[in-house]
């Protein structure tokens, strides 16, 4: 609004700024020019403040065009009448018609510019409202996805600890202490959209150690990292936890050799996490809920790293090894 005011003040000052002081001042010419500027001002702000918002934006275009036509025609004829009343040398009719059409055209341009500003402003506000609504919806969806990780994780872990109590109560007590530490991390360290990669990897390491307690020695577990500036790198919390859970749930055989390998390589430009595990097909009953956690991972990646991640799920030719690899190419999360 301030810019528009400055522009119109400059327009009104033009008749004064361009006066030729070497010629005799002609009051009627000065007033005629000023009247044209006043008419442009009236048409512009009538459209900007009233006609476009009240009628055009409310699908009443007929009334909008009618009022504009009456307003512009009336102002143009008023200027022509002023010329007739104040000038001694009345121009020819065709010249008067030219002046009339010229003034009407200029006023239509002023009205069109004002309307275009209103429409663009309305469009920008509509887009802003839509973007805010989308942002709120996305934030709510992320919160739902994140809160669903906790119960799923807790259920799986408690099942493991419950099975351990029948074998070794001391190990079960140790597992409960480790679980309390993991839950503390989930409750207090993951409330932000991004956490330090160092803390996140430590959580995964502790989770693997917890799950290791009840596993036989024939299960091979490895945890390897190669991270540069790990204190400076952020990542969405618990993004790989469902993948680790699935590795333990679907990659460990009760009778055969099994393995789970976790590897993370990262720098300021990318994060690559790979979880490779032995693959033992499960029955449909055992696989219940298998895809839910993975869908949550995919949806969180789409929301937080749109177009900036890869997720590869690979099974080797004889279907004995299953690999999950997530690569995040931009460590800056969207601001949800």
Report on the structure:
By secondary structure, this protein is of the alpha+beta class. The chain folds into 2 domains: 1-145, no CATH class; 148-326, Histidine kinase-like ATPase, C-terminal domain (Heat Shock Protein 90), CATH 3.30.565.10. It contains 8 helices and 7 strands, in the order H-H-H-H-H-E-H-E-E-H-E-E-H-E-E. The protein has helices at residues 2-17, 27-54, 61-86, 93-165, 169-189, 197-212, 241-250, 290-304, and strands spanning 195-196, 219-227, 234-235, 258-266, 271-278, 309-315, 321-328. The strands form 2 sheets. It has a 5-stranded mixed beta sheet with strand order 2-4-5-7-6, covered by helices on one side. The protein has a two-stranded antiparallel sheet with strand order 1-3. Helix 1 (2-17) runs antiparallel to helix 2, helix 4 (93-165) packs antiparallel against helix 5 and helix 5 packs antiparallel against helix 6. The mean pLDDT is 78.
Notable features of this structure?
336 residues; alpha+beta; Heat Shock Protein 90; five-stranded mixed β-sheet; two-stranded antiparallel ribbon; 8 helices; 7 strands; 61% helix; rod-shaped
Strand order of the largest sheet: 2-4-5-7-6
Radius of gyration: 37 Å
Shape summary? rod-shaped
Strand content: 5-15%
Number of helical segments with 4 or more residues:
8
The pLDDT mean sits at 78
Q: Count of DSSP E strands? A: 7
Q: Spans with pLDDT under 50 lasting ≥5 residues?
A: none
Q: In CATH's first tier, which class of the largest domain applies? A: Alpha Beta
| Major sheet characteristics | 5 strands, mixed
Total domain modules: 2
CATH superfamily of the largest domain: Histidine kinase-like ATPase, C-terminal domain
| Category from helices, strands and their pairing | alpha+beta
CATH fold category name of the largest domain: Heat Shock Protein 90
């Amino acid at each position: 609004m301030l810019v528009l005011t400055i522009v119109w003040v400059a327009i009104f000052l033009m008749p004064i700024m361009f006066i030729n002081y070497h010629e005799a001042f002609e009051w009627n010419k000065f007033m005629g020019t000023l009247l044209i500027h006043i008419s442009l001002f009236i048409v512009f702000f009538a459209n900007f403040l009233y006609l476009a918002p009240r009628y055009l934006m409310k699908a009443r275009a007929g009334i909008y065009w009618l009022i504009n036509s009456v307003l512009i025609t009336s102002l143009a004829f008023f200027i022509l009448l002023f010329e007739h009343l104040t000038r001694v040398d009345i121009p020819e009719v065709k010249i008067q018609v030219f002046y009339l059409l010229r003034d009407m055209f200029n006023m239509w341009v002023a009205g069109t510019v004002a309307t275009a500003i209103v429409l663009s402003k309305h469009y920008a506000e509509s887009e802003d409202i839509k973007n805010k609504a989308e942002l709120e919806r996305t934030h709510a969806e992320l919160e739902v996805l994140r809160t669903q990780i906790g119960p799923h994780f807790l259920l799986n872990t408690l099942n493991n600890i419950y099975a351990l109590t029948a074998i070794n109560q001391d190990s079960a007590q140790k597992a409960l202490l480790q679980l309390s530490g993991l839950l503390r991390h989930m409750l207090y360290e993951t409330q932000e959209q991004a956490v330090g990669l160092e803390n996140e990897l430590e959580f995964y390491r502790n989770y693997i150690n917890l799950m290791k307690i009840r596993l036989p020695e024939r299960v091979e577990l490895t945890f390897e990292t190669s991270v540069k500036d790990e204190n400076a790198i952020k990542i969405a919390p618990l993004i790989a936890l469902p993948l680790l859970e699935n590795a333990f749930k679907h990659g460990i055989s009760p009778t055969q050799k099994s393995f789970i390998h976790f590897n993370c390589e990262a720098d300021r430009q990318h994060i690559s996490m790979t979880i490779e595990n032995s693959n033992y097909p499960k029955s449909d009953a055992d696989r219940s809920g298998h895809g839910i956690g993975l869908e949550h991972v995919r949806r969180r990646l789409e929301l937080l790293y749109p177009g900036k991640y890869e997720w590869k799920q690979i099974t080797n030719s004889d279907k004995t090894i299953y690999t999950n690899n997530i690569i995040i190419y931009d460590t800056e999360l969207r601001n949800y």
